[in-house]
């Protein structure tokens, strides 16, 4: 009886080890971390002929969707700068997304690993991804729109809209009443239609268009 158990165990181990490993395609793949109030990270991962990681380029965006490398306020934060310099090489050396984090830059490290993981999943053939994606519209003279859009199995399950003006979010003190009404209404319409292409809100057409553009981008990031 004991010998049978040992044999079965060995056979299970052999079977597990013989499971096919998904091959990574050669080329360039872009992945994104989950989006939250701290922002998100984009990783462009280049894979060689054997599916090995040969280069990783990271871009981290802050809580109002600005690229950190483009703003001087992040220049003096050494852990962030170290992470952006060291993490790409660690991904290459490990040939994997799971690497040692940079001390003092836990959030940056985790988001970078999430983004690289998504890029590698794309290289293995995965096309659609669930989760919360943060995206922004193009920057205009008046600012830009931001969306945090949660998608599951192709359904928009939650959405939050914000707008930035002068590098600051328009908060509850912003005096244009139509803006506040539009932010709630446009989100409700997108949820109801399961789409970013909804009617604009009268009195807040500009904001409506910015949010629609940002939501379209978020769905594109998710592969939907």
Task: Give the strand content.
Answer: 15-25%
Query: How many β strands by DSSP?
Result: 7
Distance between the termini: 53 Å
Helix run count:
5
User: In which order are the strands of the major sheet placed?
Assistant: 4-5-6-7
Shape: globular
Please state the average pLDDT score.
Answer: 91
The CATH architecture term of the largest domain is Alpha-Beta Complex
Helix/strand/pairing category: alpha+beta
> Largest beta sheet, briefly?
4 strands, antiparallel
Radius of gyration: 21 Å
The number of domains: 2
Name of the CATH first level of the largest domain: Alpha Beta
Low-pLDDT segments, ≥5 res: 5-21
SSE string, helices as H and strands as E: HEEEHHEEEEHH
* Helix content range: 25-40%
CATH topology of the largest domain: Sufe protein. Chain: A
List the helices and strands and how they pair.
Blueprint lengths: L1 H16 L9 E6 L7 E8 L5 E9 L16 H17 L11 H18 L7 E6 L7 E9 L2 E11 L2 E2 L7 H17 L11 H18 L2
Helix pairs in contact: 2-3
Summarize this, please?
The chain is of the alpha+beta class.
Description:
The longest helix has 18 residues. Helix 2 runs parallel beside helix 3. It contains five helices and seven strands. A hairpin with a 5-residue loop joins strand 2 and strand 3. The termini are far apart. The protein folds into two domains: 97 residues, Sufe protein. Chain: A (Alpha-Beta Complex), CATH 3.90.1010.20; 92 residues, Sufe protein. Chain: A. It has 224 residues and is α+β, with helices and mostly antiparallel strands. The strands form two sheets. A four-stranded antiparallel sheet has the order 4-5-6-7. A three-stranded antiparallel sheet has the order 1-2-3.
């Amino acid at each position: 009886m004991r010998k049978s158990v040992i044999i079965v165990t060995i056979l299970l181990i052999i079977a597990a080890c013989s499971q096919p490993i998904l091959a990574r395609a050669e080329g360039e793949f872009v992945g994104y971390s989950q989006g939250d109030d701290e922002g998100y990270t984009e990783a462009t991962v280049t894979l060689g002929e054997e599916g090995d990681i040969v280069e990783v380029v990271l871009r981290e965006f802050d809580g109002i969707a600005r690229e950190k490398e483009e703003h001087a306020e992040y220049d003096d934060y050494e852990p962030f700068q170290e992470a952006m310099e060291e993490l790409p090489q660690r991904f290459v050396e490990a040939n994997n997304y799971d690497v040692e984090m940079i001390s003092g830059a836990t959030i940056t490290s985790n988001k970078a690993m999430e983004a690289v993981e998504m890029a590698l999943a794309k290289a293995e053939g995965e096309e659609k991804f669930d989760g919360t994606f943060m995206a922004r519209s193009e920057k205009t003279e008046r600012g830009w729109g931001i969306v945090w859009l949660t998608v599951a199995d192709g359904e928009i399950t939650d959405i939050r809209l914000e707008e930035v003006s002068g590098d600051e979010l328009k908060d509850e003190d912003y005096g244009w009443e139509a803006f506040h009404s539009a932010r709630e209404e446009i989100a409700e319409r997108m949820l109801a239609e399961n789409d970013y292409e909804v009617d604009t809100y009268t009195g807040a057409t500009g904001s409506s268009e910015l949010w629609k553009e940002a939501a379209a981008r978020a769905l594109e990031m998710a592969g939907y």
